[in-house]
Amino acid sequence: MLVVPGGVLDIRKYFIILPDGIGHGKSSKPSDGLHAKFPHYGYADMVAAQHELLVRGLKVDHLRLVMGTSMGCMHSFVWAETYPGFIDAAMPLACQPVEIAGRNRMWRKMSMDAIRNDPAWAGGEYKSPPQAGLRTAIDFLLIAGTTPLLAQKAYPTRDAVDTWLADVTAKNFATLDANDFLYQLDSSRNYDPSANLEKIIVPVMWINSADDFINPPDLGIAEQQVKQIKRGKFVLLPIGPNTHGHGTHTYAVAWKQYLAELLQESAR
């Protein structure tokens, strides 16, 4: 276990803060009312807002650890560069510290274009969801988030796949707002911490999974970029029973040993 008494993140020892980033969860977002007039936030804005929450809202002036998954993984790199003395360690899970490009940018751009090019989107002022655009965006999201091995095992027949797809698509339609999703994807447009990785002064334990569609290991990006981080370590988890593609970041059994190692290394 992870965030439990006696766990690696022992809640008797650590105060755990789990913020909703701008545009996500219960934080301010386009669907609250401004729609496409909502400010076009980026990752730097999201991290700055989190810093304000800590310093001004919670009166916290130092963090033992910044840890994030996927988008939060990228935020971890921004945190470590922007506020190098504020944290003791960083653990990014499932991302790359470079500009969103290649296939990663492709599926994001195609998803955003699908929403914007749907006549029902109406410049963000739709009265009912732009179904065609959202369906395409959901399709790309499902491809990006799944992995061949697990999908084949979980849905070994055509009918099993079709049933699952209908169910998960319906659930996404029920929860996703087109403007919110559009903004969430677009918020990565200016992300590129690669030029400032040398500014990171704390230990970094960076974890990716070999079956991650969004961050495929064959690019070799991580092995090169980690060299720029003075106290950085990169771990590529091999495909196995505990990996779940991009979603491996939510299965602590796959990486909690490395978190324990990081906490020990960065202990004061």
Structural notes for this entry:
This protein folds into 2 domains: 114 residues, 3-Layer(aba) Sandwich (Rossmann fold), CATH 3.40.50; 84 residues, Orthogonal Bundle (Rna Polymerase Sigma Factor, Chain: A), CATH 1.10.1740.110. The model has no long low-confidence stretch (mean pLDDT 96). The chain has 268 residues and is of the alpha/beta class. The protein has 9 helices and 4 strands. It has a 4-stranded parallel β-sheet, with helices on both faces. Helix 1 crosses helix 2 and helix 3 packs antiparallel against helix 4.
According to DSSP, the number of beta strands is 4
CATH superfamily of the largest domain: Alpha/Beta hydrolase fold, catalytic domain
The share of residues in extended strands comes to: 5-15%
Just name the CATH architecture of the largest domain.
Answer: 3-Layer(aba) Sandwich
Kindly, what is the distance between the CA atoms of the first and last residues, rounded to a whole number of angstroms? 24 Å
Radius of gyration over alpha carbons?
A: 19 Å
Element-level helix/strand string: HEHEHHHHHEHEH
Number of domains: 2
Largest sheet: 4 strands, parallel
Q: Share of helix among residues?
A: 25-40%
* Structural class by SSE content: alpha/beta
User: Order of strands in the sheet with the most strands?
Assistant: 1-2-3-4
Mean pLDDT score, rounded? 96
CATH topology of the largest domain: the name is Rossmann fold
Explain the layout of strands and helices.
Elements: H1 43-57, E1 66-69, H2 71-82, E2 90-93, H3 102-116, H4 131-145, H5 148-154, H6 158-175, H7 178-186, E3 204-209, H8 221-225, E4 232-237, H9 256-265
Parallel strand pairs: 1-2, 2-3, 3-4
